[in-house]
Amino acid sequence: MESSSPSAPSVPDEREVQRAALVDHRQRLTDALALAPYDLILYLERAVVYSELAYPDLAAGDAYRALLLTDEVLNEGFEYHEAAKESLEGHSTEPYPKVLDHGDLLANITNMADGEDVDGSEPYRQLATTASVRCFQILSLSLLLCGCLASASDFVEKGLKILPENKELLETKGYIEQVARRRLRLKPDEPIDFHDLPDTGAVRREIYPWNTYEPDRFSEESLSFLNGQLETMAPKCAVKVSCLPVLLEGETNTDEYEIIPTCNQLGLFAKEDIAPGEAVLKEYSLLTANNRHKESTCDACGTELPPLKVQTEAVSCPECYDTVFCDEFCFSQAEEQYHPAVCDKDVDSIAKDPEAKDVAESLYLLLLARLLAMSNHQEVHSLELKEIKYIWGDFVPTQLNDIDLSVNAGPPPEWTLPFSFKYNIEIPLHILEKMDIDIFETLPQHDLWVFNTAYSKFRGTASARKGLRDGRPEVAAVHPFWCLANHDCDPNVTWEWGGRMTLFARETRVVGNRPGGIKAGEEILNHYCDVDLSVKDRREWAQGALGGWCMCKRCRDEAAATNGSD
């Protein structure tokens, strides 16, 4: 019998070839920025590459850094003025850098408004002002594509204040109005209240092609490290690979199927029998956040402290007296792992006492702030810290995120990471500046994709505690081993957080009131949401927090029963 001819090697399609070339170009620009961190032209060039790669959020991040550097160039008293000016002057020998030759920007540069005398000014000032308009072009269009209409509108107006007739800015302004009418459901003749524009959207939630920090979570090395850490927290448990149902994008007809799509994740498993009510895990974490200003809460572990008159063990930092810890242990842990990075730096007031609509975002931001403090004090990259390194961020494969970036093609369902200019770009950089960190020189540690990766890991795994005054979440924490116990709406454990996160074996199960307890070999099944909610509400929670509908057996059974009764 003749053997079949070997199959021809697969040929990458044109988009894959283009993407590989762009990723390579992005790396060259990133390497150049490591050598010239105050070069705003390099930031603009990388922003354009990000736009072509379909990362509008990362394009906005680079354009904003470039915009900050134009301010440094134009203001002699600013901290990085000389370094930014010197870098920009390196581009003044050519007529104009290619990245500024966009649309009619150079054609109408002499029409600048607000008394900008570009002809009579020094060349570097003219170049910086022109670059600022390019920043506004990229920022406004990129933020529009992210769904952040208010910020996009703000930047487009700032650009038009300098160049009122710029075609690209005027076109973007028109696009913003079109999208605003759709999202606000306005008729063509109804006026737009620009103070009411939405300013949150969604961006790609993925392991970026250049992210070299994400570990092989299933390797023997990773499992050995995790189980070594787990020994003192959960002596009757082990970290193993678990087979879980895949979260789906929305309503499905697969709830009655016996076989459904699955994926591998890490999970906690019992090594020996665990009795009902017995403690399964006790975990201490410093990756905590509190969004109440000057509240009586331990800065380290998040424990609510008693009133001052009955506090006996509480300890205040001698350098910043308003920062209180519940005892000497928490203070020593804070000093060892993060506190010196923020001590007496006026960081505590940022994002505190937020409006009701911003409560959740403020907690995620403050978790990021704590992560950055830990990273900078320990001199370890944020994504290498054990507190988040092994957490899965519900990432979507890069190829599924690759879409048409035309203005009218909204983000697809795979874009699942909530995003805003304020919480993803502006305030994180402000926090770093408050910590006396050079946001340009430390770009490898503080790039926007690093922030986004951390946010991806926080969402769906951070736990929160509500305040007694108004029932709003006011303290949050990430416990990396607690969240290794995978979610199920019929959990075999319940949890309690008060300084330590403790998992207990349930006395009875949710479904059928079955006896509790966990047998050796069984997986520890946690719950990240209120299991008393309806299947509809639980799945809506999972869609927002985890990026897809929960497909656990309880959800499938209840959804199938509901659909069958309709």
Record the SSE blueprint.
Blueprint: H1 14-35, H2 40-52, H3 56-74, H4 81-89, H5 123-146, H6 149-162, H7 167-184, E1 201-203, H8 220-233, E2 237-245, E3 262-270, E4 279-283, E5 288-290, E6 315-316, E7 324-325, H9 328-337, H10 359-378, H11 398-401, E8 417-419, H12 421-434, H13 443-446, H14 448-458, E9 463-466, E10 473-477, E11 493-497, E12 501-505, H15 535-545, H16 553-565
Antiparallel strand pairs: 1-8, 2-3, 4-12, 5-10, 6-7, 9-10, 11-12
Helix pairs in contact: 1-2, 2-3, 2-5, 3-4, 3-5, 5-6, 5-7, 6-7, 10-12, 10-14, 15-16
Provide structural commentary.
The chain is an alpha+beta fold. The protein is built from 16 helices and 12 strands. It has helices spanning 14-35, 40-52, 56-74, 81-89, 123-146, 149-162, 167-184, 220-233, 328-337, 359-378, 398-401, 421-434, 443-446, 448-458, 535-545, 553-565; strands at residues 201-203, 237-245, 262-270, 279-283, 288-290, 315-316, 324-325, 417-419, 463-466, 473-477, 493-497, 501-505. The protein has a 3-stranded antiparallel sheet with strand order 4-12-11, with no helix packed on it. Strands 5-10-9 form a 3-stranded antiparallel sheet, with helices on one face. The protein starts with 13 loop residues before the first helix and ends with a helix. The relative contact order is 0.11.
